[in-house]
Each structure stands twice: as structure tokens, then as C-alpha cells.
Amino acid sequence: MLSSITRTLVIYIVAIAAMRLMGKRQLAELQPSELVTTFLISNVASICIDEPELPLFASLTPILLITALEIFNSTLAWYCPRYARLLFGNPVTVIRNGVVDQEALRHLRITPNDLAESLREAQVFSPGDVIWGVIESNGSLSVAKKPEGDEPPPMLPILIDRHLYRDNLEALGFDDSWLEQQLSEAGIASPQVLILLSNGKETVLIPKKAAPKGGQN
Amino acid sequence: MKRNLYAVLLLSVLLAVVYGSGRAVSGCIGQTEQELYVAYRLAMDGQYPDAAEAYRTTAENNRRRSLVLCLFVRRSLLDKINETLATLEHYALPDNPADLAVETARAFAQLEQLEESFIAVF
């Protein structure tokens, strides 16, 4: 009984320290790899508490190892967008100008009911009200609603960290030459772009800093 | 990035602790094996009272070492070896050398299992 209390205390402290060390990203985003990390840590922790026969060190080691690996993994993903796409996947457009892309839904294995539910959760009650709906890599649905009255249309991502959103480019009626023109006006090459957004009328371009320091999660 | 530094520190500490605990486990098991071997030699030489005393000391020492070992290896394996060691002194009699040989061999095998449970890669 005493060992169970001690183990629970130790695991509780270590699990909280591990989650804290991995940062808020671990709590907020839950990308596939982060979900796996969280599951693994919670399982290892509960096994250690449930089974006093297991050596304590054998339970703490995987928790700390997973924590360190997760930090290295997210750092690598930050520095290498290609790796990040491989790890997290890409967002997939499912609604464009009010039209549902059924092929994309089939590919994602999302039923119309799932889509309707996600839309309702986003306070949207008809796909017709949506300019751009996208399933994010963490599985959530993000929507850009059609503007009402004099509202400006929502900004759509065109280029984010070397990833070109070609369907957005085409949906806004632009092509590669428009993109090249934007980049040449800003005097930077596409790998130097952190975020490029446009709504067809306005464009927002945020270049990367010369020496990226990475995000403090 | 501070978090990467922490992660490197964490990994370094883990490696150091794994290395240190590996040495500690091997050391503890090696000591018990040595003591067990000495006790068995005494019995083979016919010094049964000394052998029984040596077996008892081995069992006590191993129980003490178990307090450290239980941090690194399964408690059931430790219980098994402690139970085996606790019975050995009662076999250290002139009329059952075969039983003593069998039980001592069992204890050596259990010590080996104990070491493998920590060192085995898979």
C-alpha cells in the first residue's frame, strides 16, 4: 500500500513535469505524433501505478525518454517543413466556394454527418456559407465564411513555410506568375516566406527572420 | 531553444543512470554469485556448518541488495531468488548433496535471469 502511494506520487510529479517540458503545444494541438506521445505516457504511468511488481525506474525511463524524443521531434519538424508534413500531414480542403469536395471526404473517410456536425460546431449551418473549409492535420475542421455586406473576404493561406496552397491560389484567380511577382516585390525567395495570405484584394507577406530561433512552445 | 537543452540534459541523465544502474545490477548479482560459489565450495569440501552459515549470509546480503535492485528489476524475480537462497542453508547437510547441487544451480539460473531482465535488449 505504501509503495503504491509512493509510486503514484513519483509518477504524478514526473508525468506533470514531462507534459510541462513538452510545452503547451502538447496540450493544444495534438497532432498524430503528439497524440501517440500523450497516450504512451498516460499508459506507462498507469501501468506503473497499477503494477507495483514493475521496477519504478523501468517506468520512469520510458516516460522521460518519450518526453525527450517528442521535444527533438517537434524541433526537427520546426526546422524541416518537409519532415513536418510527413509527420503531421497536410490540411485537406473539403469545401470550396460552398461546394463540398466529396472525393476529398471519401479519401479522408469523413462521412457527411461528420462534416455537418463539425460545421455546426463552427456555427455554420450550410456549406453554402463557406468559402473555404479545410480539415486540419489534427482532424479539426476550419472554415472561412463568406463575407456579409461590406465585410472583406477572409484571408486564405497561399504559401506557408514552403507549402504552396495551390487550390487557394487558383480559387482566388491567381497563378504562379502572381506569386512570383509578390515575392519579387518583397525581394525574397519562396523558402524565405513564413506566411503569405491573400483574399484577392489584400496580401499579407511575413518573411522569415534571417536566423530562426524556433518557437517557444 | 531551452527545451532542447533540457531534452539533451534529460537524455544524458537517463543514459548515465541506465549505465550506473546496469553496473549496480551486475555488481550486486556478481557479489551474490561469488558468495554462493564460496558457500557451495565449502559444502563440497565437507564443511557443512560453515557452508550453511555462508548460505545464510548470502541470503541476508541478497535481501539487503534487493532494496536497491527492486528499483531496476522485477520484484517477482527478486522474490524468487530470495526464496531460493533462503532455503539453501537447510540443504547444506552431508546426507543430501544432490539436492544442494540442484538448488544451488537453480539459484545461479535465477540470478542469471535477474541480470538478463535488466540487460536484455528485447
TrEMBL record, chain A:
Its main location: membrane. Keywords: Cell membrane, Membrane, Transmembrane, Transmembrane helix. It comes from the Bacteria. It is found in: Cell membrane. It is a multi-pass membrane protein. The keyword Thylakoid does not apply. The keyword Isomerase does not apply. Residues 84-193 form the YetF C-terminal domain. Pfam families: DUF421. InterPro entries: DUF421, UPF0702_alpha/beta_dom_sf. PANTHER family: UPF0702 TRANSMEMBRANE PROTEIN YCAP (PTHR34582:SF6). Belongs to the UPF0702 family. This is DUF421 domain-containing protein. It comes from Gemmiger gallinarum.
TrEMBL record, chain B:
This is DUF4363 family protein. It comes from the Bacteria.
